[in-house]
Amino acid sequence: MEKILIVEDSNFFGSILKSRLEHNNGYEVMWARSLSETARILEDPNNIFLAGILDFNLPDAMDGEIIDVVVRKRIPVIVFTGNANEETRNLVWSKDVVDYVLKEDSQSIDYILSMLNRLKKNADIKIIAVAESDSFRIIIKNLLNIHQYKVFTANDGKKALELLSTYPDTKLVIAEYSMPGMDGFDLTKKIRENYKREDLAIIGILSEKEKVSAARFLKNGANDFIIKESFLTEEFYSRITQNIENIERINTIKEASIKDFLTGLYNRRYFFESGKKFFANAVRGHLNIICAMVDIDYFKKVNDTYGHEVGDIALRHVSSILNNRMRKSDIVTRFGGEEFCILAINMKAEKIKEIFKELCKKVESSPVELADKKNIKITISIGVSSKLTDNLEGMVKEADELLYKAKTAGRNRVEID
Q1: Do the Cβ atoms of 77 and 49 come closer than 8 Å?
Q2: 104 is catalytic
Q3: Order of strands across the sheet that contains 28-32
């Protein structure tokens, strides 16, 4: 369970924050009411915090001194204060904080909760920052590190493309326009040859005198741009977050279109769209594929005896076993009803029988656990086609016929061509 540090001398705001964080979001909260109490908490090496939510004014630290104390411990800091004046705001943003939130209404707390969720996600998000200037590159890197992103830097476009090749799951590239060799425009065009806007965002960095070229940056494929001379930390973070979250929203929509809502496995449509590409590569001799059809034995009896809700639990149970056993490169699909289809890539021929027999044994030895602490045992039958036919549909048909053979031979078994 992740820990959150609250430093707040107001019982009203402290109790609301603590309640929301613990009961609605499942965090473990440590609440201090002063600088001295916070220092004692931070002395304990076992206290590792996802973030600290700090009031600016405390009884023993009236001018934001608490921020430096917590930042020195490398804890991401969100300042939650009623001070709205420009001087306080500028002071806070000079101290490497994650964000500055005013105590206004319940939406302020909602925002803090969304920012904590953002920090958790950011640890898995890769960003490449490209700039000729060492000092500017360091500034960008440090700002992104505060928000917990995984950051890689390059001083020119060529190096940036090398990094992108090494880390193809990068979600954002921040590219300066003026760079030696390949400028930001050309880098953007190169990236767009392989990455769509909805897969990877690009933010261009231009100087004030280059501002007229901002539209060109966007036309070449950038999602956004920032002007160096009017660079504000708060705006920078807002633009980064907005572009990352746009990609996440699009990915969520994509996932919904290719995933089965009940099991989380790929759906039939995705199986054939992606599977045909693998099949074409297999025909060219670039890889090997096998197709396996999997069916839950006597599933109708499970539904009739225990109800459809238990049937859904059984489907999720089997889906989890299949998904955990197969590799990320394999396509594990819910084909419909209680039937699943697996397209496995480059599975060694001598391992096929062993792997699918293991799956049968795993399902048989892992009863479905119900809410009333009752367990029900289920088994699966599998048909495996390992030889290329005229098309992918032919392999699926062959695997389905082998599955039928496994069923008629007694179930809870594997039949391989």
Answers
A1: no
A2: no
A3: 28-32, 3-7, 49-54, 77-81, 99-102
* From 176, 210, 338, 415, active-site residue: 338
**Sign of the alpha-carbon dihedral angle for 91, 97, 103, 107:** positive
Residues of the chain with pLDDT under 70: none
**Structural domain range at position 91:** 3-116
pLDDT tens digit string along 118-175? 999 999 999 999 999 899 999 999 999 999 999 999 999 999 999 999 999 999 999 9
Per-residue model confidence (pLDDT) at position 233: 92
Instruction: Say what the pLDDT of residue 101 is.
Output: 95
Closest CA to 240 of 102, 147, 153, 154: 147
How many domains does the chain divide into? Answer: 3
Cα separation values, 384 from 99, 271, 341, Å: 54, 16, 10
What CATH number does the domain containing 20 carry? 3.40.50.2300
- What pLDDT sits at residue 3? 95
- Residue 110 inside a domain? The answer is yes
**What is the C-alpha to C-alpha distance for residues 187 and 389, in angstroms, rounded to an integer?**
43
CA distances to 96, 281, 313, 363, 375 from 368, in Å:
49, 38, 7, 9, 5
